[in-house]
Give the backbone structure.
Amino acid sequence: MIDYRFEPGPVHLVRLARGADLYDGLTDYARRHDIRAASLTFLGAVRRASLRYYDQEERRYVDFAIDEHLEVVAGVGNISLLDGAPFLHAHAAFADADGRAFGGHLNSGTEVFALEATIWQLSGKAPVRAPDDCTGLTLWGGTLSGP
Ligand code: ZN
């Protein structure tokens, strides 16, 4: 287990403009404000969603997109450091006009219609992402030995 302890920092309420890229817009905000550790949520609507699914057997991401107007039912994520820069890791659930939901790991290419995010910045030594041999992912603290 790896855990980090923080003190609460400032809370940012962020609205992205119509046409913005959801992933890139939040990443840019974090980098401009030097947010190195944070938890976040977001909601709103998008004109298309670009997501990824991690195939645990193949150890690779499979990208897919949903090219329709969708509600952002729930978005969650965190910010930590990767290669010395703030890095956003976010997952989101989207719903279509019939209420059917889709979701996954948020990728660049999700076009915002309206988007509100709450970013809870944290004060303390930021978690650093490193390769984790057990999963093939880049995770906080790198490889863990044992369960
Ligand atoms: Zn993910």
